[in-house]
Design a protein that fits this description.
Helix content: under 10%
Order of helices and strands: EEEEEEEEEEE
Strand content: over 45%
Distance between the termini: 40 Å
Shape: globular
Largest sheet: 7 strands, mixed
Number of helices: 0
Length: 118
């Protein structure tokens, strides 16, 4: 079992910044890949960014490239999503998720609300 807890969401004005954290506990040594997702009201959940847990290689959605940065601190079993130049369309519930094997997310956090006002 892996437990994931997000924090860092909130209300911010357009152009502002937030940093989300996702703390992992449990069988963290089994984690292969971590991802951030978001879901806005009335929309499907979408992939935002991901990071290979051991290698540190990252990928991100085109909609956030150049604005969002994903990183991790293996010693703390925590990974982060630094969000800069936020836009109202970034408003969503953001969730972190863990893969134990490639291609399937096995564990999810409870989500944290990010609201960007115009």
């Amino acid at each position: 079992q892996v437990q994931l807890v997000e924090s860092g969401g909130g209300l911010v004005q357009a152009g502002g910044s937030l940093r989300l954290s996702c703390a992992a506990s449990g069988r963290t040594f089994d984690i292969y890949y971590m991802g951030w997702f978001r879901q806005a009201p009335g929309k499907e959940r979408e992939f935002v960014a991901g990071i290979h847990w051991k290698r540190g290689t990252t990928t991100s959605a085109d909609s956030v490239k150049g604005r969002f940065t994903i990183s991790r601190d293996n010693a703390k079993n925590t990974f982060y999503l630094q969000m800069n130049s936020l836009k109202p369309e970034d408003t969503a519930v953001y969730s972190c998720a863990a893969q134990l094997t490639p291609g399937q997310y096995h564990y999810w956090g409870q989500g944290t609300q990010v609201t960007v006002s115009s």
